[in-house]
Amino acid sequence: MNSNKIKRIFNKLKTIIDTEITLMDESGYIIESTDNEKIGNYDNNFKNVDLRKNLCQIGDYTYYFFNFVDGKKNVFSIKGKSEETKKLVEIIGIFLNADFNDVSQSELLRNLLINGIEDGDLEHLNKKFYIKPQTTMRALVIEVKENVMKELENLICHIYPNELYTKISNNLFCFVEKCSKDNDQYFIQIYDAIYSELFYEPKIGVGTVVDNIKDLSTSYKKAVKSIKLGKLFFQDRNIYYCKDFGLPTLINNMDIKSLEELYKDMNYNNIDEILSDSELVTTAIKFFQNNLNISVTAKQLFIHRNTLIYRLNKILKISGYDLRVFEDSINFKVAMFIHNYIK
Fold first, then answer.
1. 2 CB burial (10 A radius; 0-12, 13-18, 19+)
2. 3 to each of 9, 68, 183, 187, 197, how far by Cα in Å?
3. Does the CA dihedral 179-108-115-26 come out positive or negative?
4. How far is CA 17 from the centre of its chain?
5. Cβ density class 217-237: b for 16+ within 10 Å, e for less
6. Whole-prediction pTM value?
7. Edge-to-edge, what's the strand order for the sheet holding 239-241?
8. Which domains does the chain show, CATH number per domain?
9. Strand partners, 210
10. What is the pLDDT along the chain (343 residues), one digit of tens a residue?
11. SS3 assignment, position 9
12. Contact, 203 vs 240, CB < 8 A?
């Protein structure tokens, strides 16, 4: 467990306990305290504290030591020496020690993905679960409906019992893929397995490849962002890659008023007419997916080449954009993205 989590626990305790409470390291240096003037100083009573005991009382304070992952001890103190204070300190101490010692692989991984990881936790992760820090990997985030999550967990556990994965929330699940930079197999296999076994089409965000487990949080966050943007800009897909979101990211970072003005300048009334026609929209999307190749697009749409040319000419006549011309196709795609984003 990292120091950030210790501080979060401590801050929650401060809101519950209506007395002075202080957190310090094993040298007596005060990390946090409800008395702000004490932060950054040393506890004057600490030289009299018996380090061999978990709990001791000195002056007006009760002290409790709890183990940290690297073998060192942290200390918290509460002002007071009554039996009630002592019992409260012991209860908090039991909770902290249990939380540090019994954390599961899934909990550690989830914390790593959401909050990042520090060297102490990294060493603990390596020792307890035999995970090498220097490993090429990436995060695959799987989004499903809440009622499918339990089935998804069971399926992944059955297919990949020795891999790293964890439930993030009621509809987000993360699978850690050990991979090379050109390996695109796992997420396709996972998608196919979910589709065939659960009869469900998940959304999968593919994070960037990293060379160290410390950077896995970055890969995870990019995968989550890919799903968010993918559902807005690529509604015909279920698997999203970070590398495809250059233009959508730019649009996402613009304010709505600027987007609306840009869309209006792009002959939006006529483009709206096209985007309300499912046949023309499908034609445009397939044409873009096949790099403006008429023959391949016609084959995938199961239509004659001349039929495709007729539809492209219809789009040109309505919007003024000829999708066979690279610059026009880019502008039209931008207009489609803005339309989907605003709507």
1. buried
2. 10, 9, 35, 33, 41
3. negative
4. 33
5. bbbbbbbbbbbbbbbebbeee
6. 0.63
7. 164-167, 172-178, 137-143, 203-206, 239-241
8. 3-101 (3.30.450.40), 105-244 (3.30.70.270), 254-342 (1.10.10.2840)
9. 137
10. 455 566 667 777 777 878 888 888 878 888 888 888 888 888 888 777 766 677 888 888 888 887 654 456 778 889 888 888 888 888 887 777 665 544 567 877 888 888 776 666 666 666 666 666 677 889 999 999 999 999 999 999 888 888 889 999 999 999 998 876 555 577 888 999 999 999 999 999 999 989 888 889 999 999 999 999 999 888 889 999 988 888 888 898 899 899 888 888 887 668 888 888 999 999 999 999 899 999 999 999 999 999 999 999 999 999 889 999 999 999 998 988 898 888 7
11. helix
12. yes
Identity of residue 327: E
- Amino acid code (one letter) for 272: D
Residue 51 tokens, joined: 């380090």
Beta bridge partners of 143: 172, 203
Query: DSSP assignment, residue 213?
Result: G
